[in-house]
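My convention is simple: the sequence line spells out the residues, with the fold written below as integer tokens. I include a record here:
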Amino acid sequence: MVVLRPAGDIAAQQRDLVLLATGLMLLIIVPVIALTLLFAWKYRASNLQATYAPDWSHSNRIEMAVWGAPLAIILVLGAVTWTTSHTLDPYRPLSRLAPHRPIPAGVKPLEVDVVALDWKWLFIYPEQGVASVNELAAPVDRPIAFKITASSVMNAFYVPALAGQIYAMPGMQTQLNAVINQPGVYEGFSSNYSGAGFSGMKFKFKGLTPAEFDHWVAQAKAASPALTRADYLALARPSTDEPVRRFASVDPTLFLAVVNRCAAPGQVCKDQMKSPMPSSPMAVAMANRIRCAPTRRAPAQHAS
């Protein structure tokens, strides 16, 4: 029921889209089911009063109803889908906090870097300089800009009360822009199977007041160890049912190193790799074609 009673504006818009699409489809499904039952009853073998017309073959009015109503619904769904594909694009910065509530001038999104590990979640706060494991906190009514990746296998970051799921993939970075509008503690988890510890890959998302969020950050800085590269490599080892942990500081280059697959010493970062010089005209042509091809970002998905 969380999907139908979300606490964030993006999730609420996605819920409304699901309800609209379901309602439009029911405009066809309900009459078809009702007419099927009606015809089966009216034209039963024992009803001798029913009209018997074995040579009947066509009706313009029936054809108009059968084809016109679905076509109208498809046109409406197509227009809604095109519009919401842009307005609910997870990469698109938010334009509002809620209906009739624009984002106040000067408010910056809270940046959160998300790393899906085996089998736990690491959340890094670049602005605050802290990090946490299996605990995510954010102030209410402040946009959140997530950058998401994975350390080994594909996962999916999903907080149903906040927004739809977004895939987390090794060597790639996806994004999600969202906002939480109501204080509370919400469930978050991986919605993509990723191995033996998948069922325990859950975390708590805390929607806090600004003062509570500042206190949460202060607690992390006051009584937590630092997250170094060595600590990250130890944390990245497969483990299940990890307890909540916080880190008072974090290597500012860690997330970029995870995305580029070079968190361990001696590894060459993907963004620093050079392709070998092509040795034939065909290879040169292919290399030029690849370089000139438009860049495609990693696939992302809102799922309700």
About this structure: The chain has six helices and 15 strands.
